[in-house]
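Collaborator request, handled under Task 6.
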Amino acid sequence: MSTRRDFMKWLGAAAASGVVGATLPGLSLAQASSSFPSKRPPVGKRKFVSDAVERQLASVKSSIGDPKLAWMFENCYPNTLDTTVELGTLDGKPDTFVITGDIDAMWLRDSSAQVVPYLSLAKSDPALQRLFRGLIRRQARCIRIDPYANAFMPDPHAQPLVWARHDSTQMKPGVGERKWEIDSLCYPIRLAHGYWQATQDKEPFDDDWREAMHRVLATFREQQRLHGRGPYHFQRTSETPTETQFLEGYGNPTRPNGMIHSMFRPSDDACVYPLFVPANLFAVVSLRQLAQMSRAIHQDLPFAQDCEALADEVEQAVRKHGRMRDTDGRDYWAYEIDGFGNQLFMDDANAPSLLSLPYLGCCDRNDPVYQRTRELVWSERNPYFFKGRAAEGIGGPHEGLRMIWPMSIILYAQTSNDPAQIRQCLAWLRNTDAGTGFMHESFDQDDPAHFTRSWFAWVNTLFGELIVDLQRKHPDLLRG
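Structure tokens returned to the collaborator:
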């Protein structure tokens, strides 16, 4: 996202001395309520209210034994709805614009990920259905404006985001930032497919949506670069090297191999090697979901077959070229490659990441290649794995060394089969909020009071999703 640093000070001497986050045994409900007053906006000032979400919130919260963890869940799970949703109409149909939090623009990735945890409740809640219909339409409109853009403004006449106004690229009206990231086109498909599966509602998948999906396929094909570099290029004048791209904005050299090129990662940081493995695996899943929808909803067999053909090409290429071998000859996934044989191993906290592959449906969590990869990314083999007095987890170049992203801890728990591992993740998340009751973008490995982005809705909702999942799968971990 932006390069702002929203570092905040420790909230009081008690928190600084470690009292905040300590175990709080024996509190009555009244004591817990007074100790942890809700940080949600007053009811009349909430952007969006869902009866189904409120019911689930109350039910799950009542099953959490630790008062502070219950309080954090209450603050975080509805944060997207409380603070980031704008409803309207566009061409006489529902329209939904979802900002990231402290940045007043809509990322295709973030806006999708922020609302996915509410999908299972949509069938029983007409208000949620209206929200999803509006967002699916808005995202399709954005893709039709520019499939290479990652962020959009609410009004097509608005200026781009302030740091993007002098970028050397082909800016279009309504675009906030134009960093080409494969996942920007995958996440809207994931959202659309999830909504359709949850509700069987076909209403938002009109001709405009179909046109957007054809552009998705064309863009993925274009960025295989089998017939030249394609039209996309991007450069930015910045003191931060990861804000711009190499070689006139087309990225470092590659030998095309069937994978899709990506100039930026989901962190909005530049790729070193443009063949970005996690996003290519995500694209395979998304293309197959799109094919399924095209068959079932539109009976468009040729387009479905084109989607599946590209998915097969990309999958074969990434499986052939995107893996590395350890000293015992066992496979694990690379992070980025260039097609010449050069491979980069690391992981970044932002999803798609190597850690997040099962969460995004790219593999089974018990897959041996994934398990070896997971073990390596959560270790010193990954240069962006940090371990300190406060916690351990993965960060990335975006906020620099020592800065752990709660998102990585959440996804580590989401992809774990080990109750002890999940319990440890809950403890780290519970004790690194700096007394705010919310997740943050990142925090210092030794000092959670040193954190970035006090209002980052994606990670708040993701934390809520984890707690809801645990209440269903491992309720004993929440009761304890």
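The cover message to the collaborator said: "Confidence is low (pLDDT under 50) at residues 1-30. The longest strand covers residues 85-90. Please let us know whether this matches your experimental observations."
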